[in-house]
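Input.
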Amino acid sequence: MIGTLWLTGWRMLTRALGFVSLLALTQLLVPADFGLVALASAVSAAIESLSQLGVRDALVRLRENAEDHFDAAFTFQAGRGLLTGLALAASSATAAKWMGDARLQPILVVLGVLTFIGGLENIGTVTLARRLDFRSQVLLQAGPRMLSVIVTILLALWLRSYWALIAGLAFSRVLTTACSYAVAPHRPRLRLQGWRYLLHFSAWSWAGSVAILIWSRSDPFLIGPAVGPAVLGVYVIAAEVALLPVTELIEPVSSALYVGFAMAHRTGTMARDVATRVAMAIAICMAPIALGLSATSGYLAQTLLGSKWAGAQPVIAILALLCVFSPFSYVCGTTLSAQGHIRRAFYCNGLAAALKVTTLLTTLHLTHDLQVIAAITLAVVFVEACLFIWQIQIVTPQRLHDLAGPALRTLVAGTATMLALLFAPGTWAPTELPRLHAVLIGAIIGIAAVAAQTALHAALWTAAGRPDGPERNLAELASRASAKIASRLSMLRRAT
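Output.
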């Protein structure tokens, strides 16, 4: 919980600065600029994933720090960065021709150089995760992120070009690599001793990274050639806004859980039903947030992006609901990886990726409607969550019947709140209100949605007799946090 608070707190702070950046950049740049960078990033990620070995996860699971394994991991990482950078540069012309935009070639060359620089990052930072030093990890990520936002905005003011986005990315990558040597005392060397363990663990991790890449990066590849950079830019930015709870809350939680689950697995203290119980608890927290984002999608688009991005509203409204199902994929996948069942995690990711590509190709053949595409993505995420629950049930049988009550209460509370929100003006619709008015009205509706669903869920749980389960875990955590805050305030009063 402490690690999660560190990671989510700092990410929320940097995301707040990112909101300012997004607000400024959408006024200085056009949707085609974002679409172009999204295409280049998709190509870069596709090539990078083909050499992703997952050596960091392998080091986290080691029982003891071994210098040979760390040096071998650095050697793998540096070699991967060099080969991947060369592959990006070599394939830049072909990729630009296939995408039908010559501007992609120099962008991909720059991204290749940045990939090599990222490969030189100090592998010693893994020790921060092993000893649960989340504070140092947060500072390592947050510092370069905050500075790169400032640099990107300044360059956009000067260049008024997509190159501002690339330059900001370059600044962040170089600074992160440099900071990794300041944070971690380990000085890696090019050695291969201990490579067998790393290669054995990383084989399925590599396959899983390819499947995740296809899942997360297939949209630009498939949608871009069909609809063009401008429409793709609308979809990419809308997805980024809608999935903020996933990127800023669920992903940090999963990062903290992986380390904790790995330690629990090593010591034999892993609870049997921890995966589904934690996932359900996170889903309960995400449900009101997802509903609030969906209902206020028009105000979000107007506030953050402006009137020329009105097409993003229906996409935000649909994709925001992903936040309800994503916790099961993330938490169950993290549990499988921490316990060494990398192959099963790959099966789930691979099947979900294949399903997404197949359904998107079929959909794009029939229509280019972004709302339909978003709905297809939502359905695939639901199927992926079911696959992960199935696999975790095979490995460690869970008491799934205990989740029926919390799931039903979440559904009832969400449905009732949604029906009430339908009577509020402007929900689930674009708006042309001035930004200040959109902020105020959207905030009121969003806060009301979160408060109403949370209160209704709590009332349903109380009416059911407060049974044991994820709701009780959340209530206990809230009680402990409140007690600790009250204790700290009391100490401050006595000190003053």
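The radius of gyration is 23 Å.
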